[in-house]
Write a structure and sequence with these properties.
Elements: H1 2-28, H2 33-57, H3 66-81, H4 87-109, H5 114-133, E1 144-145, H6 160-183, H7 185-195, H8 197-202, H9 207-233, E2 235-236, H10 243-256, H11 263-278, H12 286-299, H13 305-310
Antiparallel strand pairs: 1-2
Helix pairs in contact: 2-6, 2-9, 2-10, 2-11, 3-4, 3-5, 3-9, 4-9, 7-9, 10-11
């Protein structure tokens, strides 16, 4: 057990070191474009991890997670358009708006179970999607361009390397917080609800409130991911909220590992990496992705991150 713990620690430190030196490594190879790509991987990894909280640990299969990501992105667009640029205003506003939206959806949808829960979260997400499509002052279906990034303590965030390290700092902080949350009494109770909700209710746990808190936390973190994504792309569109994006996040969690600490991050890295690599060779890049999903289903049903744990 101690040897396994040390191995995991070693892998964590190796991964952190790799992320720290990544911009300089690709820069020395003349591949500066991949700094922006890796920034996107980190942001999508945050979004997938937020979904993993309710899907992997809470057993809540929500097909509307992209609504919270897109809502956070649009809050950034609106505030920058109104000349509100300070990060301590913009990002918290995105988080709070997405958290409020998650609370509103969760209060209603968490009273259902199974396929009904999936469909009602999808219905709410599509309503949010069409709401932002109707905002003609922000481009409607065509989207809205941002001509600057959030002012982060006076840093030159137009520099892709600086912005990468800002995102990396947020990414690390959120993963540490996520790990602590899962190991807390709240996290253990959430796992218990996933395993047997009726038994947890019989033991006196406030099941509905625990699920709602998890749902709100998940939505808030997804909103922060959306804010980071808006800053990275300097563009927002309703496509960020479409149900197919929610399905992509679910696939990332399934591939990486449901209920595993780095499942969302690993899934995002694999899916985005495969997409980036395969699109250079063929327009039918979805076929290898389908084969990967078949491999995961038959060989690693708990996700690729579980293979290391099994060994």
């Amino acid at each position: 057990m101690m040897l396994l713990f040390r191995r995991h620690r070693l892998l964590e430190w190796a991964g952190l070191l790799s992320l720290l030196v990544f911009p300089w490594l690709v820069g020395s190879l003349g591949l500066d474009f991949y700094v922006s790509f890796m920034t996107r991987v980190l942001i999508i990894g945050v979004a997938a991890t937020s979904l993993n909280l309710i899907l992997g640990y809470g057993g809540m299969v929500a097909l509307g997670h992209a609504a919270f990501v897109g809502a956070g992105a649009y809050v950034v667009a609106m505030m920058l358009d109104a000349q509100w640029e300070a990060v301590w205003l913009v990002w918290p506003a995105a988080v709070l708006f997405s958290a409020a939206l998650a609370w509103l959806i969760g209060v209603i949808s968490l009273r259902t179970h199974g396929v009904y829960f999936i469909m009602i979260t999808l219905a709410f997400a599509q309503m949010v999607y069409y709401f932002f499509v109707s905002l003609r002052q922000y481009g409607g279906e065509d989207g809205f361009n941002l001509y600057e990034r959030v002012n982060i303590l006076g840093l030159d965030t137009d520099n892709e390397i600086i912005f990468y390290y800002v995102v990396l700092a947020v990414f690390i902080a959120l993963l540490v917080a996520f790990s602590r949350l899962i190991r807390s009494h709240f996290g253990m109770a959430l796992i218990g609800i996933r395993e047997n909700e009726n038994r947890m209710q019989a033991l006196g746990y406030p099941v509905f409130r625990l699920k709602l808190v998890a749902f709100v936390i998940s939505g808030a973190v997804a909103g922060l991911a959306g804010a980071l994504l808006a800053d990275l792309n300097q563009f927002v569109s309703p496509a960020l909220l479409h149900w197919t994006q929610s399905a992509d996040y679910i696939i990332m969690v399934l591939v990486g590992g449901m209920g595993l600490r780095y499942g969302g991050v690993l899934g995002a890295a694999i899916i985005l990496g495969l997409e980036e690599f395969l699109r250079q060779w063929t327009e039918f890049w979805h076929l290898p992705l389908g084969l990967l999903l078949l491999f995961v289903v038959f060989v690693a049903p708990r996700g690729l991150a579980s293979l290391q744990r099994t060994r």
